[in-house]
């Protein structure tokens, strides 16, 4: 029997939740982790139609890219689609698990790797590797170690936990700086006296393969027009919002699935000739400054291959239940 927790544990090995962004809410959103998995449905957005499809196909676990609950929910009356999805999931005993910015930040098996492969990029590397890392070393009463371990996957990597005199265990954790305050709070709650004697240090990034966006090279230079055609066919879209075509050929390409305008300057600094992403605002197009071709292909379009990717990741590992990719297009944006 495979439990929901077993699937989660595997997904966490693919994209550790500790690498999600601060604002994110990736992880198990509804459901009992001890339940047996009857079937999995993967999607970009856990909408009402996806919940109904899961039920119809006998799936009790929905693995979504975007967390249906982002901020807190103060009431559940069914007034919004978010409330209705959560209520419906609970009513049908259906688990919803979100694997979001932690998956965005992965070089291997990530959202961006999928886009790069579709554009045929070579020599790819992370555009903005996570750089701010820390370690913390502290002693803890041995009896509290299981509680510490239970909470760690969301926060940090456990480098070691060795028994020490006085029924204690000395632990060292390595974590992304974004997780620092949450980790301080955890240690403070578990053992305030450990917090007082803890040693916090900066560390080098142990994972150059973790971070936002990707950059790589086209096999051969293309004109701006040819490049846009490549993006259209590779990403199966007929509509791209873009800046003025440049005189120079497109050779180096930066990309980021989803809302990626925050990486524009980095793409320019790394010498990218084009930047493929989504959710650019009007004024942000001006920031191209004639240096780079911004190609805004749409949020859904940029991430549409994430659901099949998740389905592949799960079905390659587990064979005792079916994993499907949703048939529903959950794109709320239409073009006419
Ligand atoms: Zn997204």
Mean pLDDT: 92
Poorly predicted regions are none
The quaternary structure here is single chain
Basic shape: globular
Please outline the major beta sheet: 6 strands, mixed
Hey, roughly how much beta strand do the residues contain?
25-35%
SSE pattern, N- to C-terminal? HEEHEHEHHEEHEEHHEEHEEHEHEHHE
Total of DSSP H or I helical runs spanning 4+ residues = 13
Helix content: 25-40%
What is the radius of gyration?
A: 22 Å
Number of strands: 15
What class do helices, strands and sheet pairing give? Answer: alpha/beta
Distance between the termini: 48 Å
> Can you list the strand order of the major beta sheet?
5-10-12-13-14-11
| Hetero ligands | zinc ion
Plain-language structure description:
This protein is an alpha/beta fold and 336 residues long. The chain has helices at residues 4-14, 48-56, 81-91, 101-104, 111-119, 145-151, 180-190, 192-196, 224-234, 264-269, 282-286, 299-303, 306-317, and strands at 27-30, 39-45, 61-66, 95-98, 122-129, 133-141, 157-164, 168-176, 199-203, 211-222, 241-242, 250-259, 274-278, 293-296, 322-325. The strands form 3 sheets. It has a 6-stranded mixed β-sheet. A 5-stranded mixed β-sheet has the order 1-4-3-2-15, sandwiched between helices. Strands 7-8-6-9 form a 4-stranded antiparallel β-sheet, with no helix packed on it. α11 links the parallel β13 (274-278) and β14. The longest helix has 12 residues, at 306-317. The model has no long low-confidence stretch (mean pLDDT 92). Residues 66, 258, 299, 303 line the site of zinc ion.
């Amino acid at each position: 029997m495979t439990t929901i927790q077993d699937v989660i544990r595997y997904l966490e090995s693919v994209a550790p939740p500790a690498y999600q962004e601060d604002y994110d809410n990736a992880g198990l959103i509804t459901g009992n982790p001890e339940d047996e998995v009857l079937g999995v449905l993967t999607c970009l957005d856990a909408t009402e139609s996806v919940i109904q499809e899961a039920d119809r196909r006998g799936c009790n676990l929905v693995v979504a890219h975007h967390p249906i609950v982002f901020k807190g929910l103060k009431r559940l009356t069914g007034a919004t689609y978010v409330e209705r999805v959560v209520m419906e999931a609970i009513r049908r005993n259906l688990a919803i698990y979100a694997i979001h910015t932690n998956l965005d930040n992965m070089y291997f098996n990530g959202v961006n790797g999928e886009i790069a492969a579709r554009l045929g990029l070579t020599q790819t590397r992370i555009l903005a590797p996570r750089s701010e890392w820390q370690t913390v070393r502290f002693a803890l009463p041995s009896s509290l170690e299981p509680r510490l371990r239970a909470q760690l996957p969301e926060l940090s990597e456990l480098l070691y936990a060795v028994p020490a005199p006085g029924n204690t265990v000395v632990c060292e954790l390595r974590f992304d700086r974004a997780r620092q305050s949450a980790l301080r709070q955890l240690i403070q709650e578990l053992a305030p006296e450990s917090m007082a004697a803890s040693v916090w240090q900066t560390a080098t990034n142990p994972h150059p393969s973790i971070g936002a966006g990707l950059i790589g090279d086209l096999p051969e230079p293309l004109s701006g027009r040819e490049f846009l055609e490549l993006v259209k066919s590779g990403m199966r879209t007929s509509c791209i919002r873009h800046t003025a075509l440049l005189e120079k050929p497109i050779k180096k390409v930066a990309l980021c699935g989803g809302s990626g305008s925050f990486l524009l300057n980095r793409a320019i600094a790394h010498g990218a000739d084009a930047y493929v992403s989504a959710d650019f605002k009007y004024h942000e197009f001006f920031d191209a400054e004639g240096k780079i071709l911004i190609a805004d292909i749409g949020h859904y379009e940029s991430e549409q291959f994430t659901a099949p990717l998740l389905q592949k990741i799960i079905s390659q590992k587990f064979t005792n239940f079916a994993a499907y990719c949703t048939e529903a297009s959950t794109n709320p944006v239409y073009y006419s």
